[in-house]
Amino acid sequence: MNSALVQNTILSLVTTSLTFAVVFLLNHLNRTKSITNEVLRKILHIGAGTLYLAIYFYNDHGQFSKYLNIFPNLLWISILIWKSQYHSSTHPHDPVLDIMTRNQHKSELLYGPLFFNSVVVICGTIFYKTIPGSLIIGLLTWGDGLAAVIGVRYGSQRKIYGNKSLDGLLTFFIVGIVASIIYIFVLVNLQSVHLFKICVISFVTAVVETLSSSNIDNLTVPLSILVTYYVIF
Questions:
Q1: How far is residue 182 CA from its own chain's centroid?
Q2: What are phi and psi of 101, to 5 degrees?
Q3: Is residue 212 helix, strand or coil?
Q4: Residues 62 and 5: beta-carbon distance below 8 Å
């Protein structure tokens, strides 16, 4: 067994373990009512986005073994599909349903959570260590995650579309820029950071997220990033 395969396998197992640890920690906070459901789901978003940075440590000389980075997401996709079909009503406090859905309906698992993990799989393969992949994860996790938290906490008097607020839009825009710069710098290189283009993509994506339904924004956000990226880059 070569060193690249060993290194990438260990990284994959560690990140997989961390995803479960985060879920169980957030479930504990949910059971004790320490944090609201909306904040819990967005912390999960941000946590997943932060763990994505672990692909920096994957050995690219491992050819196919570098794609072990998507194992945690493939596992969670399987769990989400299984839970959506076979969730037992005899166990009302299901950690997956409690922290990954708004209304504890198992059908919700096949929207936001499933879309999110599918997008991360694509970023970990097709867009592995690329600018588009870095933009998508940075904006989708930190940008969207903090936008929802700030919007709910401070934006109740400044609604601009449905339940979306100006505070959330501005947070998405600003945090998205910072996160995009960090992700591109870490996963690609500093020379690939183009501030003006990142600002344009972040603004367009913030508007798209504001106009999108909560069930599909994990799809519309990445799609808007890709379209804008290939138009201006």
A1: 15
A2: -125, 160
A3: coil
A4: yes
pLDDT value for 215: 86
Buried b (16+ CB within 10 A) or exposed e, 133-160: bbbbbbbbbbbbbbbbbbbbeebeeeee
Q: Which domain holds residue 68?
A: 1-126
Q: Is pTM beyond 0.90 here?
A: yes
Q: Which residues touch 55 (CB under 8 Å, ≥6 apart)?
A: 66, 69, 124, 128, 129, 187
Q: pLDDT tens digits for 129-173? A: 999 999 999 999 999 999 988 887 776 667 787 778 888 899 999
Q: Give the C-alpha separation, 141 to 182, whole Å.
A: 13
**Residues 101, 86: Cα–Cα separation, whole Å:** 16
Question: Residue 86: how many CA atoms within 13 Å on its side-chain side?
Answer: 5
For residue 192, give both structure tokens.
């690939």
Q: Which residue has the tokens 């059971």?
A: 31
Average pLDDT over residues 31-56: 88
Residue 125 CA to residue 118 CA, distance in Å, equals: 11
- Of 78, 97, 126, the residue that ends a domain is 126
Domain count for the chain: 2
E strand or H helix that includes residue 133: helix 131-137
Runs of H (alpha helix) within 62-194: 71-86, 95-100, 112-123, 131-137, 144-154, 166-187
Residue 228 shares a structural domain with residue 156:
yes
Q: Which residue has the tokens 């600002």?
A: 199
- As a whole number, mean pLDDT of residues 56-73 equals 93
Residue 77 near residue 71 (C-beta atoms within 8 A): no
- Alpha-carbon distance 125 to 185, whole Å? 19
Q: Could you say which of 126, 156, 187 is where a domain stops?
A: 126
